């Protein structure tokens, strides 16, 4: 497995991690034993970075990871969680030190750890990222031993750049995939220069880049790909990376046609993410042990050729750019 060293944090993690939103909620039902099987398959395949959040299944994802950690003591992966989306209402005024303590204490209990490896602000209101008090509170959590480090998960390029400028931020999580290329322009170079790790989320555009969907594909009512297509529940960019479904299906067919023999379209798309300078780890989700192993195998695949990179850029420019590039 390819690895990555995080500059400010001094951590070494696998280049392919595991996104654990699917193990909690909003992707249809996942049996607990199947979820534990996904975690085991990923770690056994060399994955050393797990990403979750306190709101994934209202703590279900964290608790499953905590159970896994208790039953599998070595090797122990780095676990990153997130906080902030439990706030009701979700407004800037709720991002206080007292709230941070409550949220992280709950996550520590769910995960069964004294100190959280990494806590990320979970797509907070934009103004939160500009306040000195935000980072002073996060520094206090580090001093108190509740967390070992902190980062942010953001929606926009401008939010990412605001966070990167803060010296205590060790990571920025942002959507990066074949259909979301804007972070390549400024965010990835700025993060690399500052020593900030980039965690690339939604790398398969909610499954579009698996190449398995067509215009007639439907999803469960409990799946965000049904209930959030127009941003009804949260930022629409989190669902299909903000690309209209029919547009994404057509573009994904062109991506599939470029996929080398012996690789899946999903692996090809994940390898593209890993090839982008500045990406520290990519966090595809998985609903089965087989998917987890296939994702982890991307860390051993060869980089894309210049011709493949150029062909994917053309697909983006011709089909996708107009729908997403100026929005985030």
From TrEMBL:
Occurrences of domain NADP-dependent oxidoreductase (ranges): 16-316
SUPFAM superfamilies documented for this protein: NAD(P)-linked oxidoreductase (SSF51430)
A Pfam family annotated for this UniProt entry: Aldo_ket_red
Signal peptide: none
Taxonomic superkingdom: Bacteria
InterPro entries, alphabetized: AKR2_Oxidoreductase, NAD(P)_OxRdtase_dom_sf, NADP_OxRdtase_dom
PANTHER family, per the entry: D-THREO-ALDOSE 1-DEHYDROGENASE, NADP-DEPENDENT OXIDOREDUCTASE DOMAIN-CONTAINING PROTEIN
Name of this protein: Aldo/keto reductase
Organism: Cellulomonas denverensis
